[in-house]
Amino acid sequence: MRIWDPDRECMARDQLTALQFEQLRTTLERAYRNVPCYQKKFLDAGVSAKDLRQLSDLARFPFTTKEDLRLNYPYGMFAVPLREVVRIHSSSGTTGKPTVVGYTRNDLNNWTELVARMMTAAGVTADDIVHIAFGYGLFTGAFGLHYGAERIGASVIPISSGNTEKQIMIMQDYQSSALVCTPSYALTIADHLDRMGLGADSLKLRVGLFGAEPWSEEMRREIESRLGILATDNFGLSEVMGPGVAGECEYKCGMHIFEDHFIPEIIDPATCEVLPPGSVGELVLTTLTKEAFPMIRYRTRDITRLHYDTCRCGRTMVRMEKTRGRSDDMLIVKGVNVFPTQIEEVLFQVEGCEPHYQLVLDREGHMDTLEVQVEVNETIFFDEMKKQREFVGLVEKRLAATLGLRAKVKLVEPASIPRHEGKAKRVIDRRKT
Amino acid sequence: MKVEQISIFIENKSGRLAEVTRVLGEAGVNIRALSLADTSDFGILRLIVDKTDTAKDVLKSKGFTVNKTEVVAVEVPDRPLGLNSILQVLDASRINVEYMYAFVERCGENAVIIFRFDDTEGAIRVLTEQGVKVLVGERVYCM
Ligand SMILES: [Zn+2]
Predict the structure, then answer these.
(1) Contact A322, A214 (CB under 8 A)
(2) CATH number of the domain at B3-68, out of 2.40.440.10, 3.10.290.10, 1.20.1640.10, 3.30.2130.10?
């Protein structure tokens, strides 16, 4: 399959490092000079752009958090005067005020290029009819994908969100071949097709680019089989740019982060230390080319892992795994970082379906204990005690291998874990009392 | 020759067993045989009832996890070593017993043993060949 910008996307690691170093130095200087928040942070930490002698020195610089953006609402983090800003977007703030981000003309051009890379990696070409069912507005999703698709030369249908039956009619009549929306909306479309008595073959769709919310491999399989398409994942956040920070290629083995524009780091969310390659931790991103809204070590709160080996597609750009939840959900058990999603993954593998579970943390003497309560269902219930115990033993073994600590598995009756608004309360921590 | 059995997952806490019998009683289901295997956390309750499908449906609708399995019911001759001769037959044919439990026929003196085998078909063949009395499901359900 095509690579949009092979010179950049397949760059040798040493060349890339040299490029990143130059750009990072400039970014740090500009941020210090133009953004009071960064100036203060650097001074407090006793660092300046001159302290960057090699890329790893980035670890000496302070982090930027969502809270910093909130405190500097609306334009405090802009590094250029507003007259140079040609576009303003906003993040969907779940709490309090949203955050405002700006783009210069160069920023928009880079953004468009990166989305073109990401869409090309997913297999979109000039021959595609791209159906964009993200809501057009302050949210970065729709506009980001829109201009990227146009850059490739595809035909863009800016349908926006809502009215699914009309969307299906347009997909049929206009012969949309690439679908851009959230993964859950893709399933809504599949549900409507079922209700209308239509098969996936009534559409010309062949590929989907889904993002803006986390989704599982299980959901991918469901979308692929129900819509008969290749379903690809992509990643971005408006604070850093929007969609186009990273995207999957046709091998679907992680999202390539476009490292000539962003430096990813993985940190331990508890100690804030940078972790060695291959570790699971919180993704931290630094922008290298953003003019209007540079981000230095932005804590995304997303938990993931990076793979640096070259992908089968030929791209050298690092691949990030699907995000595994938020760092705010992290638990520390016997000094080990545990993410509920890691446990969910193990249960999913052994059960073959979305597990219903709850984690109970307690303390025996001075030792933490972790009990994983799992609701039984017909597939994991055996009438033979020997098999039932073997199953519990298998789950405990897998958990120990994944988490690096022992957890006790307790089977409980279905629907015995309390649910609030349909969602189970995942963690009960009795250690604090 | 096979007998249908239902197994129910129950948490090891008070009142769960009574809840199962209450649900079945209200649905007019009669329990013919029962066995409970338990650990400190949970138990597996196995039942043979007169209306297997009804029992399974009502228990599921009350939120229990229920599986249906096939077992073999054997009438044990009322003489010393009656059970032993059956076990020897099975052992000689290398048929493994996963578990077993017994109950006594209401109007007879004979004991009935419920077996769960790894190879149900094979077990039935061997037992019948050796002249052991294997009971049909209908017979057990109305005992
Ligand atoms: Zn690739």
Answers:
(1) yes
(2) 3.30.2130.10
Measured in degrees and rounded to the nearest 5, phi and psi for residue B16 equal -70, -40
Contact list in B for residue A413 (CB cut-off 8 A) is 9-11, 16, 63-65
In this structure, how many other beta carbons lie within 10 angstroms of the beta carbon of residue B64?
A: 23
Rounded distance, CA B97 to CA B12, Å?
A: 25
This model of the complex carries an ipTM of 0.89
Which of B34, B64, B65 to substitute to test the interface with A, most A CBs within 10 Å?
Answer: B65
Considering only residues B33 and A415, tell me which one the structure prediction assigns the higher pLDDT: B33
| Model pLDDT, residue A351 | 80
Residue showing tokens 């992680």: A254
Q: In this complex, is the C-beta atom of A396 within 8 Å of any C-beta atom belonging to chain B? A: no
Q: Which residues of B touch A374 (CB under 8 A)?
A: none
* B34 CB-near residues (< 8 Å, 6+ apart): B45, B46, B47, B48, B101, B103
- How far, in Å, CA of A53 to CA of B26, rounded? 79
Burial degree of A140 (CB within 10 A; 0-12, 13-18, 19+): buried
Residue B60 has pLDDT above 60, yes or no: yes
CA angle at residue A302 from A298 to A303, to 5 degrees? 125
> How far is it, in rounded angstroms, from Cα B77 to Cα A315?
76
The answer for A 401-420 residues in CB contact with B (under 8 A) is 410-416
CA B19: distance to chain centroid? 20
For residues B100 and B115, give the distance between their C-alpha atoms in angstroms, rounded to a whole number.
5
Q: What is the mean pLDDT of residues B113-125?
A: 93
Q: Checking DSSP bridges between strand A129-132 and strand A155-157, what pairing results, if any?
A: parallel
For each of the domains in chain A, give its residue range(s) and CATH number, in order of start. Answer: 1-327 (3.40.50.12780), 333-429 (3.30.300.30)
Distance A377 CA to ligand 1 centre (A): 38
Please state which of the four CATH numbers 3.90.660.10, 3.40.50.720, 3.30.2130.10, 3.90.380.10 is assigned to the domain occupying B70-141. 3.30.2130.10
Interface with B, mutate which of A360, A383, A412 (most B CBs under 10 A): A383
Low-confidence ranges of chain A (pLDDT < 50): none
Instruction: Please check whether residue A148 is in contact with residue A116, taking contact to mean a CB–CB distance below 8 angstroms.
Output: yes
- Write down the pLDDT at residue A95: 59
> Which pLDDT tens digit goes with each residue over A316-347?
999 999 988 888 888 889 888 888 888 988 99
Do the Cβ atoms of B126 and B120 come closer than 8 Å?
A: no
For residue B57 the two structure tokens come to 């449906």
Supply the pLDDT for residue B76.
Answer: 86
Please report, as a single letter, which amino acid is at residue A142: A
CB pairs under 8 A between A and B: 51
Q: DSSP string covering A394-409, please? A: HHHHHHHHHHSS--EE
> What are the CA-CA distances from residue A313 to residues A10, A11, A148, A260, B138 (Å)?
9, 13, 21, 18, 63
AA letter at A257: I
